[in-house]
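1st attempt posting a full record on here, be nice pls
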Amino acid sequence: MAQKAVDVLTVDRVIVATSSSLLHTPVSIASETKLPAEQKDWFSFALEKAGEVATIAAVLSGSQDSKVSAALEANKTAIAKRRAFERNSNDAVRKRVAAITPDMLHRKHPFPIRREAQKKQLNLPKFPTTTIGSFPVCSYHIKPRVV
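the predicted structure (as tokens):
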């Protein structure tokens, strides 16, 4: 898709970027020490996403850099490993997913009935709020400046 944009607009007029802010994305997958290496490769946090964007931009600008080639090759390998894992994953889960019927995609009760049940069960205030987005993702310790 990006190549189509370059073909129509020229490389000088196309900017490759993430589709949304990375503000609420964890910084790097490197801190995830408990994930198996196989699964760790499936995730992409802010630093990894920035690297992927840079690779796409480099490819679109015609770069044949060895770093770009290595990133593309690693991506192909990761995709192949993920597909192999999915073929060998939990058969019971695949069977349950295959058994999903259209009826299962519809709620039993309309929203007004569900809302009343939630009011009774949860006893939420009139305007419930959360702290999602209220805390900084990373904190900086800045020395006060004496003037």
